[in-house]
Amino acid sequence: xxxPLPPAAPPASDTPAPDLPILHRDGMMLIINKPCGLPVHxxxxxxxxxxxHLDALRFGxxxxxxxxxxLDKDTSGxxxxxxxxxxxxxxxxxFAAGQVDKTYVALTRGxxxxxxxxxxxxxxxxxxxxxxxxxxxxxxxxxxxxxxTDYRVLHRGEGxxxxxxxxxxxxTHQLRAHxxxxxxxxxxxxxxxxxxxxxxxxxxxxxxxxxxxxxxxxGAPVAVSAPLPPHMCETLKALGxxxxxxxxxxxxxx
Length: 254
Fold this sequence. Notes:
Layout: E1 22-25, E2 29-34, E3 66-67, E4 76-82, H1 85-96, E5 101-109, E6 116-120, E7 123-127, E8 130-136, E9 148-156, E10 160-167, H2 174-181, E11 206-213, E12 222-225, H3 230-238, H4 243-251
Parallel strand pairs: 4-11
Antiparallel strand pairs: 1-2, 2-4, 3-4, 5-10, 5-11, 6-9, 7-8, 9-10, 11-12
């Protein structure tokens, strides 16, 4: 008797799965350390996205987790995923209400004049054809959205600074546009003035360092910090700074 052949395995992808460290996991959510350069959604040019790898993060649940918020393609760090519909609904309410605390670390070209402060500057689209490209505009501008960012300077150096950032609102490209407005664009930012548009320039030096999610009604919030990515560590070390110390300072900046 001829035994039936087993089903053929799916072809292996030419693109290896990215390293997606799990920073926190419970029955409601995952928090991963998203690498720089990996988009969370497909763009007009296609290519690999985080969505291609969510099924590998089910950990026994029948559904793959889904994004509770977003990070730009070139921003690394803490990213929250809801593991099922109930979790996503709750997380969506927490993010919409501004109850999730987020702290970012950025290296900037130049620095704000003050060591700490608040940027309260509305943002609007620069072009109707590029909805993700924002600019700071005067208050009262038609179509502008309120945008508020708190910042603290952790280090000032020759032409570069290290900042901790806490977005009070969550607008598209808010941190990048706000720092450019202050005259201190983020290093490696080819859109808002922190880098040349030519290929081969430095990567975006913006990292979602810490996130605090008050998920449990009667329990302590989940607080997670993501190690700084290699390219930012290299730049910090070149400035004579300890990346771990910078991360710790950012964790307690606000």
